[in-house]
Every structure is written in structure tokens, then in C-alpha cells.
Amino acid sequence: MTQSVPTETTTRHVDVLIVGAGLSGIGAACHLQRELPGRTYAVLEAREAIGGTWDLFRYPGVRSDSDMFTLGYSFRPWSEPQAIADGASIREYVRDTAREYGVEEHIRFSTRVVSAEWSTADSLWTVTAERTGTGETETWTCLWLSVCSGYYRYDQGHRPDFPGEERFGGQVVHPQHWPEDLDYAGRRVVVIGSGATAVTLVPSMAGQAAHVTMLQRTPTYVVSLPGRDALAEKLRRRLPDRLVYPVVRWKNVLVSMASYQLSRRRPEVMKRVLAKATAKQVPADVDVATHFAPPYDPWDQRLCVVPDGDLFRELRRGTASIVTDRIATFDETGILLESGRHLDADVIVTATGLELLPIGGMTLTVDGEAVDLSKTVSYKGFMVSGVPNFAMTIGYTNASWTLKADLVARYVCRLLAHLDRNGYAAATPLAPADGGVEPFIGLSAGYVQRSLTALPQQGARAPWKLYQNYIRDVLLMRRGPVEDEGIRFTRPVRERATASAGERAA
């Protein structure tokens, strides 16, 4: 039977230690309980609440940019009417899932993992964690370590230094640290940025602010999707959610994949499709070529989704506007642009991106040797070469995060079962023999490019290459063999030593 998280001050031991109680971590714990109920586990969470990203971000309008039929868990249907859900609803969905599957009692909050050391002799991870607020340390041991902390840095976002910022007489805020008491009603707001956060903030603030301006240096492809899924609503009138959910989930997977493949194979066609759709929704005085036609191909960076065209609606109403220019300097009353234009502002929101922090900033050591993630090669997108019994969950860049997180969680269960059946102690990925490697993530977005050197690399072919293709990964991770050229399975050291001694005696 699974056990609750121990609270004694001595070294704690579990079979599986999960780092992070967000969307990925809760999903990993649920899969473990469902598929390997005899395994003991614990979840260590640095913050004081379940939800991860969806508990951290509290800016106006925060929502998913993936539909909830694919962002939701495969084992727990999303039953709300909104397909593009707000952050609070997603947070409650994750918390309700943890409560329903009894994961809550396995979570140790305010516990940040600092380091993890693997011992081949003991076939064991020794994990050091720090209690936030007190600074006290505690030690855990485990057979398997799954890091589900995503790759965003939680304590700070990307924040460029703007010239003259100290002169600005209003308030400057970053969406990652949104003040609860910020009053922007009737005030002029400038949102700096063009990504998912900016296109969410602008329509959400436009209803109360005097005016909201989205100031972007480079445009982004923006696509409008219905806030509700028409097929789901039609099927729900006739079928229960447990039948509707997989049908709509696969429909959305296939539509998303088709869009991505068209973008990569025929980018000029996709550009025309996006430009035509945008031109129908923006007012006549908004030049699509200037404000919605980036200098890169679709899916070189992630597309921005706006539910029911809310951004375009506010542009038509005149409550919001979009400016494509560069900042010369802040001044006492706003922002002076390089074109000479001045944007008056009472509040400036710097939606300037995120910082990446792989595996939550923890350090890894294998038999006394420090692991440099940038020198490792990813195996099937979730393990890294030379590091035994270790998984890191990173979702898709071209689809829902949870689609990949679910595959990873289930594959970890497959590996653990395989270790048990065969008497193995460790599963260690190997780097490709041909040495061919590529960057781990193929997006040109700033937050990715700034941090590529801290991420593992990927190989040029399977099982080391990240194809960003859900169907291919389903075949690889659900149906494909567990043992292949990219991974080595070993028995406990003592057992190997005994076998070797026996062979020598014989």
C-alpha cells in the first residue's frame, strides 16, 4: 500500500520522489498510484500550495493557451464548458485531482530540493532539501527521482533594464509578481511585450483601464480560437464526459498537429491563412503587415491564442491599441519611442518574458561526479545520458504540456515495472554513439535562446531526438520496447559482484 509522507526528522525514504506539485507533479503521482499502487512516494513542493504555474501567476485574465481537453489529464476528464480555461479554474482542477486521488497527503510543502546524489553502490538517490522560511535541511533517499518542476524560474521573470526607468512617475509591474492591490481602473496602461502574457493582459485590462496600449518590438502570430469546443458541447448533450473527452482530445491533437505540420512544410501558405484571418478581425486602421506579421515563420515561436478573438474585439472597440516600435527611454509620464512618438502611461506592465531554470536549479551528482546538463543528451525527451533512475518532465512546445507529461509519467511506471520484473536496480540512458546532437528546443523565442546552454541536447534520431510529435511519441513510449540501444539496465552491485565471484570460482 502507498504510505503518507513521513514527518520524522531522520532521513526519509520512499521508492519514488517527485519534485514539484504542479500540473506535471500531481499527474505523475496519480499515474504512480493508479499503475503501481504498491510503490511508496512523496512530492516535494517549494511553494506552499498545489498548482505550480497556475498558482503562481495571478495577473488579470491569466489562462491557458492550450485547450483543456489536451491540457487536462488523460485519466480525469475536463468537464467545464470553457475549452480555453482561466488560471483559477485550472488551479482548482489540479487541486481537485490531487484531492480525489489522495495525493495531498503525500505532499511536503515549503520544501525546496537543493541537490541529489546518485550512488551506484547503493542503487539509491540521496536528496537534500531545504525548508523555505527556516533554512533547515532534510534528507531523503529514493530509488527513482522524477523532477516535475517545469523549466520556468519561479522567483523572477525576465526583466530588461530600460533607460530612464527611474524617472517614471507611475508604477512598473511584472506579470509574474502581480500586486494584489494594483488599481488600474481609469488609468492609462502600457503593456510591453507581444507574447502570450501580453495578449492575455491587454483585453483583460481594457474593460477597466482608461486605455491599454500593447507595445511590441517584434510582432507575434496571433490566432483566434473559440472559447468553447463546439464538438464537445454537441456530444455532451448525448454522451457522458468519459466518452466525450477522448474523442474531443484526439480531435484537438490532430487539428493542432495538422496546423503545425502545415506551418513547417508550407510556411508561406500558413502566413497567408493567419494574415487573412487577422485582417477580418482588426479595425481598418490597424495594419496587419506591421503589427501581426513577424519576420519569422509560424511556429519558429509558439503561436499566441486569443479565445473568441478578445484582443481583436478590444482593438475594434478602441479600448486598446497596438504599437510596433522600439523604446528610446522612459520619462516622467510614460515611454518615448525611437520613432519620436510618446506613449502616456500611469502603469507600465513589463510582459517581457520568463527565465528558464532547468530542474528547479538543483544540482545532480552521479558517483561523486557533478552532472552538467548541457553536456548530456536527452533520451526520449525525459531522461538524460549518464544519469540513472532520473526523469525530468518537459512538455511539448507545439502542443499541450500535459500531453507529454502524461506520456512521461506512464513511461516512468513502465520502467519501474520493468526493473522489478527483471531484478534490475538501475536504468541509465546512453549518449548516441555517432555523437550527432542538436539544441534541445527548436524555438527561436528569447526565453529559450537565453537558456539553451543550460539544457540537455538532443540527438539526430530516435530515441534521442525530440520530434514534437504526439502520435509518434505514443507509439514510442506506450508501444515501443523498453530496452533499446539508448539505455542500459544493470543489476544491484552486490548481486553483480557475487555473480562475478561465482564465475571466477567456476
UniProtKB/TrEMBL annotation:
InterPro entries, per database record: FAD-binding_MO, FAD/NAD-bd_sf, Flavin_mOase-like
A Pfam family matched in the record: FMO-like
Domain of life per record: Bacteria
An example molecular function term from Gene Ontology annotations: flavin adenine dinucleotide binding
Record keyword Acyltransferase present: no
Alphabetic keyword roster: FAD, Flavoprotein, Monooxygenase, NADP, Oxidoreductase
Cofactor needs: FAD
Family: Belongs to the FAD-binding monooxygenase family.
UniProt protein name: Predicted flavoprotein CzcO associated with the cation diffusion facilitator CzcD
Species: Geodermatophilus amargosae
